[in-house]
Amino acid sequence: MDCQAARELFSEYLDQRLVPELRASLDGHLGRCDACRSEWTLYARVFTAISNMDHLPSQRPFRRPAEAPGSLDRRRHVSEAWSWGRIRVAAAVVVLLGITHAAVFEFARGTDQGDPREVFGPPSDRGRQVADAPRRGPVVPVNFTQRKLRDHVEAAQILARQVAYMPAGADAQTRRIVRAQLDALSPDDLFQEVDAQKHVLGLGGVGAKRYLDQWRQFSSALRLELNERRRPRLAERLRERLVRSPMVAEFEPMRLALATGRDTVGGAHFFLADAKNEPAEVELFLTANNQLLSANYLGAVDAYERFASSNPAGNLIPLSRYMQAESYYRVGLNERAIWMASQLRLRIPTPVLLRIDPVAMLYSTLHRQVDPAVLNGSAFRLQPPRQTLFFRVDQNGRGASFSFKLLTTVP
User: Fold this and answer.
1) How far is 289 from 272, CA to CA, in rounded Å?
2) How many CA atoms lie within 13 A of 23 on its CB side?
3) Is residue 388 part of a domain?
4) Is the pTM of the predicted complex or chain greater than 0.90?
5) Which domain holds residue 191?
6) Is residue 319 one of the residues assigned to a domain?
7) Where does residue 263 fall: left (phi above 0), alpha (psi -120 to 50 degrees), or beta otherwise?
């Protein structure tokens, strides 16, 4: 019996619900393991202290709310469930919803139906006009294009941060992971959609085309480095391409321009669209990226942990740990994120990347006396994680049951 299995049987052992075989096995483990025996002593002490209590505090009964002062009419007043006033209000709401639905439907159709006189003209010209009418493609809503742009910007920032923190010595995995993301983030289709709706996007369309053009140049430069297999130090060469690229300066304007009306649904198709034929570790890493992009931050933490567990001797474990720190930051666990990042001793190549690195930005905000371009564990000292014992008392008809849980927390 291992330590985890033994600790899970503590509550049943205290409640005397264990069979003799498991009780004997647990006693034998406690005689051999000092750590489990010390924790069992703590559990037994808490159980004894609670069991010696005279009585458990009873719950306060529900009370009838006091009447308002000065109330003259003390008789109960029961209102009818269906009165004519409520029926009229409900009918008005139904009619209003129907009118709103019809108006929205007509507005969405817009002028795509064309001029009715072009189709329903003279009988002799009707067939010729229908045949000569311009063929219209599917109308893509503007909000869908803007959502794809937002997802592309966020996904590109994730890839840029991974290129910035890509460790050396993992050229094979680096090539597969970076190439799969570049394939999924191809800007060709999105560029055509933005160009088709430039009259609706206005100045935002101009900025989007400039961003997509810069991304196309940057991705082409990365592909050149990925295809060059004879040159060593792939991670350093990719990082140099990122630092010299003007594409990094386009992230912040695009994020601010597309910040309104944020839709957390979407973006899942970017990373996983072309990852079906990739190796298992690459698919795990892209799945974690997809969870992060889809705002499932705790799911991203678990996915990066599965990637690290499947590659215990891999060189990309520091990168997965740093992406876990970013996931903790986005879910609101700032102290946990800073603690994880500071233990990795990662270095940002240039302060320009601070704008697209939320963890480094938080670090520099909390510690202004430290150079924000360096994430160094020696400059930021945190207390190690501590273990805290939580217990709960559940009262039922047969008495009280106790449950214990040992949690690891970061101060």
Assistant:
1) 9
2) 9
3) no
4) no
5) 142-261+268-366
6) yes
7) beta
Any domain includes 358: yes
Q: Cα(375)–Cα(56) distance, rounded to whole angstroms?
A: 51
H or E element in which residue 150 lies: helix 142-164
Amino acid identity of residue 341, one-letter, is A
Of the candidates 39, 34, 12, 37, which has an alpha carbon nearest to the alpha carbon of residue 23? 12
Rounded Cα gap, residues 267 and 290, in angstroms: 8
Calculate the CA dihedral of residues 115, 121, 126, 131 and round it to 10 degrees.
Answer: -20
Let me know if residue 17 belongs to a domain: no
374-396: pLDDT as tens digits: 444 333 333 344 444 444 445 45
Give pLDDT tens digits for 33-73.
Answer: 888 888 888 878 877 777 776 655 555 555 555 555 555 55
Q: Is the dihedral of CA 29, 32, 38, 42 positive or negative?
A: positive
Q: How far apart are CA 250 and CA 321, in angstroms?
A: 27
How many distinct structural domains can be found in the chain?
1
The answer to whether 377 and 342 have CB atoms below 8 angstroms apart is yes
Instruction: Give the angle subtended at the CA of 285 by the CAs of 374 and 245, to the nearest 5°.
Output: 50
Q: Tokens representing 253?
A: 């304007």
